[in-house]
Amino acid sequence: MLITNHTFSNLVLRPNGVNPTTIGPDGLPVGDAPDEAGLKRLGDRMAAQNGYVSQHGWELYDTPRGPPRTGRTAPPTATGTRSRSGPTSSTRRSPR
Question: Is residue 42 part of a domain?
Answer without folding.
Answer: yes
